Amino acid sequence: MAFYVKNDPIQLNASYLHLEFSRIADRFVHRLCWQTPDGLLAMLESVPGNSQQPWPSDPPLQQVVCESMGPGQIDVALGVGMSGQGHWSVAVEPLASPKTGWRWDWACKIRGPATLLGCTYRLVSPWSVGTVQDQPDACVLQHPDGHAAHWIVETGRMIVEPQHSLIRVEPIADLSVPGTIRWRYTIESHSH
Known about the structure:
Number of strands: 16
Mean pLDDT: 90
Order of helices and strands: EEEEEEEEEEEEEEEE
Low-confidence stretches: 1-7
Strand order of the largest sheet: 1-6-7-8-9-16-13-12-11
Helix content: under 10%
Strand content: over 45%
Number of helices: 0
Structural class: mainly beta
């Protein structure tokens, strides 16, 4: 297993979906883009909080590294961070072959009551969000050129605010009790 730190920004690719972690102030934000022959089309951007918020709108990752894992030496992103009474971690790995997307596996160890926990994303124009019939915790991200990605929450719940172009994934847990809380989701490209 090889371990290495890439220079900022950290960039990973899975089929059409390009993932990038960049440092802003005291934390990393991440952005998901659609890879085209002409370059990258920004799709989603995490909405960071700030150092004054004990429970920010997005996990405050202060360290992100890239590690090659498994027999195929697949690149994964690993991140950790702290804020208030919470300690966050994430592992982002490509979906199994064919690598057409990403699985995010988040955790937060809370030592006291939390007021907000989860991930918040801003949809970048001209992308739009559509619902998935009979799947309240899933959506389809659509581009006018026909590009599409399916977003499924595996553990937690999805809240979509189309009027503000915001998508939030939250864990389903009692935030008043100390413990480790997890939420997980995948975003997978659909070829056109």
